[in-house]
């Protein structure tokens, strides 16, 4: 199948195309054998569309949060919609999605500088995570072993479990931070240890940004 044209790249069309490809895939649940399995071109096109959707979603969420705040919705009201349990966690999630939200006055050159600082910080955090891989994986293993949680907390713990399969220990940081927000009441000790990891990575990020200046 040829690559889809631009008119087919709307989110609705992308979702329809992905559902069709997945539904015809031999790995689809409750489908013993698809009579018309997707071609290699269709599978590649589906992965492209999935990436495009992921990029769009990462842009939509902070914009929706900003619209909600402009409409008078409080952070505590936003928290459950964002899958977190507190006002502080909702604000942190927004700032992670849009780290320069509190710097709207930046001009073009300053935004370039800010983007470079962000990349330098990301590299420093990745290096820190690899240097502390054993400790991170030990903590992630303890989190992944938890059970008896509510649905939201279990989903965040499952994400930590999935991240353990990644060879790069830096992939654990995001899922651990999200899980920590869900564990503050039932597992405060683990939540505190995750918060300490966050503090250490914040320090590594600041150091990395300062070194490039």
From TrEMBL:
Domain of life: Bacteria
Region Disordered, annotated ranges: 183-213
UniProt biased composition (Basic and acidic residues): 184-206
Protein's UniProt name: HSP18 transcriptional regulator
């Amino acid at each position: 199948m040829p690559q889809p044209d631009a008119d087919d790249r709307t989110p609705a069309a992308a979702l329809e195309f992905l559902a069709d490809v997945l539904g015809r895939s031999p790995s689809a649940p409750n489908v013993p054998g698809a009579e018309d399995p997707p071609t290699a071109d269709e599978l590649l096109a589906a992965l492209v569309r999935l990436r495009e959707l992921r990029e769009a979603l990462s842009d939509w969420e902070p914009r929706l949060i900003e619209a909600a705040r402009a409409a008078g919705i409080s952070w505590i009201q936003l928290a459950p919609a964002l899958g977190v349990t507190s006002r502080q966690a909702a604000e942190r999630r927004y700032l992670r999605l849009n780290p320069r939200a509190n710097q709207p006055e930046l001009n073009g050159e300053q935004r370039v500088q800010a983007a470079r600082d962000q990349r330098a910080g990301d590299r420093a955090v990745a290096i820190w995570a690899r240097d502390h891989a054993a400790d991170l994986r030990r903590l992630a293993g303890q989190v992944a072993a938890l059970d008896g949680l509510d649905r939201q907390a279990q989903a965040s713990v499952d994400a930590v479990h999935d991240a353990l399969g990644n060879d790069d220990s830096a992939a654990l940081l995001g899922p651990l931070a999200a899980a920590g927000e869900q564990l503050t009441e039932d597992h405060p000790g683990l939540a505190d240890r995750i918060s300490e990891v966050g503090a250490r990575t914040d320090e590594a990020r600041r150091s990395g940004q300062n070194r490039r200046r």
